[in-house]
From TrEMBL, chains A, B:
Phylogenetic lineage: Bacteria, Bacillati, Bacillota, Clostridia, Eubacteriales
Protein's name in the database: Putative competence-damage inducible protein
Domain of life, source organism: Bacteria
Source organism (scientific name): Clostridium bornimense
Listed InterPro entries: CinA, CinA-like_C, CinA_C, CinA_KH, Competence-induced_CinA, MoaB/Mog-like_dom_sf, MoaB/Mog_dom
Domain MoaB/Mog: 4-170
Amino acid sequence: MKGEILCIGTELLLGDIVNTNAQFLSRELASLGVNIYNQTVVGDNADRLMDALNIAFSRSNIVFTSGGLGPTKDDLTKETIAKFFDRKLVYDEIAYKNIEKIMKKKNMEVSESNKKQAYIPEGAIPLYNDNGTAPGVIVSSEDKTIVMLPGPPKELIPMFKSKVVPYIKNKVKNVLVSKEIKIYGIGESLAADKICNLLSGDNPTVAPYAKEDGVLLRITASGKDEGHCKNLISPVESEIKNIFKEYVYGEDDDTLEKVVVERLIDLKKTIATAESCTGGLVAATLVNYPGVSEVFMQGVVSYSNEAKMQRLGVNKETLDKFGAVSKEVAMEMAEGIAKTAGTNVGVSSTGIAGPGGGSEDKPVGLVYIGFYIDGDISYKELNLSGNRENIRHKAVLEILNELRLKLRKC
Amino acid sequence: MKGEILCIGTELLLGDIVNTNAQFLSRELASLGVNIYNQTVVGDNADRLMDALNIAFSRSNIVFTSGGLGPTKDDLTKETIAKFFDRKLVYDEIAYKNIEKIMKKKNMEVSESNKKQAYIPEGAIPLYNDNGTAPGVIVSSEDKTIVMLPGPPKELIPMFKSKVVPYIKNKVKNVLVSKEIKIYGIGESLAADKICNLLSGDNPTVAPYAKEDGVLLRITASGKDEGHCKNLISPVESEIKNIFKEYVYGEDDDTLEKVVVERLIDLKKTIATAESCTGGLVAATLVNYPGVSEVFMQGVVSYSNEAKMQRLGVNKETLDKFGAVSKEVAMEMAEGIAKTAGTNVGVSSTGIAGPGGGSEDKPVGLVYIGFYIDGDISYKELNLSGNRENIRHKAVLEILNELRLKLRKC
């Protein structure tokens, strides 16, 4: 089945809203085995919508539309689709009752413009809307199908899941299953080079994606059922894990903070953070993980030198001799936070996030990160690029990844 | 000028990422006076990209592409666009030097696949990339122009703003000038109601947008030059500011943290933070502002009760009697951080971000924020909705906004 997505709405063309419907539909349809080769957005304009439908059906046999089903004059999707299939719009009693029900919930009268929403193309399968007044429909001719959905995600998503998914499953023969492997510490192009033989595979396919938190490698198999797909994925997954070894930090929904916190929980080790240039972002990232309170005790954002001495016991001599941005201070910070907080693990950051504050010796992007793990103290020097936000963000990822690697050996 | 947007990337068709580039480009181009009637997404596939280019130019004279400029084999945009214009790809020395520079910063070698990124279509205007290895280009024939941009937003956005905007401004006759007014503490629809007479204006237009950090009201005027536009904007701007009064926190690029930090600098007041549920995010948000070190001294993420007592001097009795999530603890935290850090201002958060940990008395979303300003202690109770991330994020905004309002009176 060759499908495409056609979103209708002038607010999308003006950039007032981001097109989350296209993402939702694409992801859901991919997992149902419907190949989506195009997404299109047009405004609330009948001529341009008709053109878009003609283009879409020149290359696809099923089109999923969203939007343009509202009660106002500029909502033209249903009328245009009926015209495309040369069908009349006919009154649907159940759709009308649903509109009455929804309006009653809102303590509002059914207006004349709402009534127009109860009409659907003749012969179409109605998709009644539990969360709004506009019904969706599935309209088919011999070789063309349109699945017409309302624009608001809170209406579109439940309608798709409850009514469109069963319809599609009934039509599609093959299943698609994906598995994601996440790696950190190696760039997208180098990662691709290392698995170039896998990238040209057909079933399963392997594709690398550069993400904020590393590189994601997606293995996707097509087969007659889930078990069949998993059997195709399994050897490729093993091969990838074997190639990237400790660069692999997780799968699917894993994040660096999740992996680190879960490892700390397993090891029953507590942690505290001492941050300068990252300004609290390491703590805030760990706290993303809901179970973190079991292991994360406290953090100090020691932005001033005074705070480094007062809160963490960093020596004045160390600050004077090496400067706040130095491996010596990073290590004293990590040790200091662990000892004052009474935790097994302490991590620290000190660096120059820019845009000002850099020098020839210590340029913008120079960051030292420190680690204390049960008495072992170490550091890593980072030379990061990008703006202030990038530098801070990368420093956080580096701290989490280094900590992940160190905790593997515990 | 009739334009459209063509985003290239299989990850968009699979729904792996949401198409924020289409939104960004649409909004920016609308404000530059370029009419966008279509947005299209195709995968990394040369044939389908060529088809999409042909369709796009059958109805538009300028096409903005994003994506497909990476170093790997499946990045085909540049090659396909060169073919579309029947141009050779030629080596660009400056683009190559830029790739070397970017890779050196990352301590990485220039790979063979990176080298291919230094080639651009013959006769094209190069758009050198300050944030990545792929240069953009503008390629034109008699009646067709393609502006080709890299996919990652952190590369696309600065390239568009610094290099494409001047190019477009030069092509478009009428000037469009926008002014943004930012408000916090009042919802989008209520804000719209208060200025409904302005919303129907023609020149300037006024449009409200719901943003993460409040509501943005954009005033846009069209005129023969910048001065003309500014004269049209000025009275509307005054009217809006008069309607929303202290809800207005800034203009254009202002953020809540920028406004707060600049006010602290003006007042010569120092600040420290004590965070529980926000987990370091208040500190990290203040640290977004590059000049923050002048006023921000330190922060404590007192996640455990022990940390609240040890670092902030919160009384054990207060914790026992009222619980960690209480106005009493919030106020002791704010006072404690200011006194131990020796700052004028202390702010605090303690709450239940969820998903677990809620009770009937203290449900998920209950957050107390505390303030200490030169001896004055106060708190605010928040009842926030959404997931863990939403709740923490809204709590940060509330702290910054409350602090802004309190500092107005200093």
